[in-house]
Amino acid sequence: MTDNKAIQVRGLTKSYGKVRALRGVDLEVDRGEIFGFLGPNGAGKTTTIRCLLDLIRPDSGQIRVLGLDPQAVPVAVRSSVGYLPGELSMEDGLKVEGQLRYYLDLRGNQVDWDHVRELSQRLDLDLSMPIKNLSKGNKQKVGMVQALMHRPRLLLLDEPTAGLDPLMQQEVYRLLREAQANGATVFFSTHIISEVETLAERVAIIREGVIVEEAQPGRLVSMAMRRMWIRFLKPVDPAPLENVEGVTLLSQSNGLRVHLQVERELDGLIKALASFPVSDIEIERPSLEEIFLAYYRAGSVEEGN
Amino acid sequence: MLAELKHTLRRKRGQLIGWAIGLALYALMMVSFFDSIVGIEGIQEMMQAYPEDLAAFFGGFGAMNTPKGYLEIYYFNYMPVIIGIFTVGVGAGLLVSDEEKGTLDLILSYPVSRTALFWGRVLGLLALNALVLLIAYLSWVLPAQGTGMDLTWIQILRPFLPLFVQLVFFGALALLLSLVLPSVRSAGMLTGGILVGNYLLIGLSNLNEDLRAFIEYTPLHYYQGADAVDGLDWIWLGGIAGVSLVLVLLAWWRFQGRDIRVAGEGSWHLPALSRLLRRDKPPLEA
C-alpha cells in the first residue's frame, strides 16, 4: 500500500449475516481524479464507501484512505473527507441553517460560513427552510453543501445527484469539477450510466460484491463487444472472417452482406478484410449502459451455469 | 464532545421543558398542601386505618405528619418510576434513535471519534436528568420556606441525589440494552419493565418475606428516598453509581465495535411470536 493514492482497497470482504455484500473488492483511486463507482442497487457500492469511513467494519481486507487506515485513525481520515450518504437523513426539528451549523460545530467550527452561503446560493438552497418541509431534491442539496463546505481533499458521494433536477445536476457536476481543479479527489457511486460518462475519468463496475471491470469510460466502450454490418461489391465466402479471433458470424445474405459480432480490438478483422471487396462498413458502438448490462447478463449466465 | 452535549440538550429541550413544568407544578401543589394535610386532625389515625397490606406495600404510612414522611409518601417513593419514564426514553434513544432515523451515518462521517460522540451524548443524558431534578428541587425548596415544612435547603436537596443516581442507573441500562436489542423501542420497553417490576417487587417484599433475599440484587433496594433527609448512605450511592458506570462502559465498548446501521436497516430480530406458536399444518387432502 502506498501513500500516493487517494483510495486503496485490497481484498475487502463484508457479510451481513448470511448475505455476502463484498466478496474481495480491490480498488485504487488516484489523487485528483474523478472516479465513478457503477453498479445496481445491492451490488456493494454503499457498503464499500461506508467501510472507507469506518462506519462499518470489514470482515477482512485492507483499506487506505489518503494513505491512512480508517480503522486506526478514523478522525484523521474524516477530517479530510466530505461524505454524502445514499440515504440522507437529518433532524426534522431544525432549519437548514441550524443543521449546517451543527455540522460546522462537528468540524470544530473550522469552516468559512461565507463559503456555505455561496454553495447554498449556487444550489438555490434556502437556508431558512425547516428540514421537515424540504423535498428530496432540496435535502440532497443540503447534503452536497455539507459535503463540500470544508473544501475536503476527498469527496465520497453515494449517488450525488439523486432527486435533483437536470439543471441542478449540471451545477453539481460543475461543483465537483471545481473541487477537482482545486486538488480534490472525487469518488462517487451511481447507477446512472450517463453520469459516469459525463463526469468520471475512470470507472469501476461492481457486481455482487466484486469489481468486474475498472477502466476509463471511453476505454470500456472501445474494449467492449460491438456489432458490424459489412457489404461487399460481389458475393464472397465469409468463412475466413470467422477464423479471426473474437469474431462471430451472426448472419449473412447471399455472401453480399454479413453481420458480425466482434470482441476486443478490430485490428485482426480489418487486416482480414483487406482481401475482400468491401463496399461499406457499419459499426454499432455499444453505450456504456449496454456494456454495464452485458456485465450483469454475463454474471447471471455464469451463475445459471 | 461539547458539540454533541449541546446537540443532545437542544434536541431534547421540548421534553425537558415539558417534564420540568409538570414536575414543578406538582411540587408547588404538594408544598402548598403540606400545612393543610399535616394539620388535619387525626390524619395519622386515618392513615393507620388503611389496610395493613396496602400500607406495607408502600413501606408503611408511619410518619406522614412529618416533613420527611410527607416527602416520602407524596414524592420520593414513586419518583424513580415517574421521572424514570423520561430517563429510560432518553437513554434508549441516546444513540440508536439516530441510527434508526439514519442520521448517525452522516454524523460519524465527521471528524468526531465514536468515543467523543458517545461520551458527549452520555453527558447530555446526565445534564438532562440533573436539570429536571434541579427544577423539581427548586420547586420544593423555594415555596417550602413559607410553610411549616421545617427542613433546610440541604435536607431537601439530599433525597434528590439518590434519585439522580437511580435515574442514571436506569438511563445507563436503557442505553446498553439499546445497543444489544434490535430497536430503541424494545430497549425502552424492557428497561421500563425492569424499573416498574423492581418497584412492585420492593412493595411486594414488604408483604412477602421470601422476596426480601431477592430484592437485594435489585437497584431500587438501594434507593433511600426521603430517608436521605437525615443523611446520605454513601455506600449505596457509590454502589449504584459504580454499577451505572460499568453499564455505561459496557455500552461504550459495544458502540466502539458496532457497525452503524442506516435508516431502515435492522439488526437481529426477535422471532415473531406467531412463528414460534405456529404448528405444521397437516397437508390438505385431495
Can you describe what's shown?
The complex is a heterodimer of chains A (about 300) and B (about 290). Chain A is an alpha/beta fold and about 300 residues long. Chain A has helices at about 45-50, 75-80, 95-105, 115-120, 135-150, 165-180, 195-200, 215-225, 240, 265-275, 290-305; strands at about 5-15, 20-30, 35-40, 60-65, 80-85, 155-160, 185-190, 200-205, 210-215, 225-230, 245-255, 255-260, 280-285. In chain A, about 35% of the residues lie in helices and about 30% in strands. With about 290 residues, chain B is mainly alpha-helical. Chain B has one domain (about 1-280). Chain B has helices at about 1-10, 15-40, 45-50, 50-55, 65-75, 80-95, 95-100, 105, 115-145, 155, 160-180, 185-205, 210-215, 235-255, 275. In chain B, α6 (about 80-95) runs parallel beside α11 (about 160-180). Chain B is globular. The mean pLDDT of chain B is about 85. The chains are: A alpha/beta (about 300), B mainly alpha (about 290). At the A-B interface, α2 and α3 of A face α1 and α8 of B.
Features:
heterodimer; A: 305 residues; alpha/beta; Rossmann fold; 13 strands; B: mainly alpha; 0% strand
State the order of secondary-structure elements of chain A, H for helix, E for strand. Answer: EEEHEHEHHHEHEHEEHEHEEHEH
Described by its quaternary structure, the protein is heterodimer
Q: Note the overall shape of chain A.
A: elongated
Question: How far do the termini of chain B sit from each other?
Answer: 68 Å
Helix coverage percent of residues of chain B? 55-70%
Total beta-strand segments of chain B:
0
Rg over alpha carbons of chain B: 22 Å
Major sheet of chain B: size, sense and barrel closure? none
Q: What would you say the CATH architecture of the largest domain in chain A is?
A: 3-Layer(aba) Sandwich
Question: How would you summarize this macromolecular structure in one to three sentences?
Answer:
With 305 residues, chain A is an alpha/beta fold. In chain A, 35% of the residues lie in helices and 29% in strands.
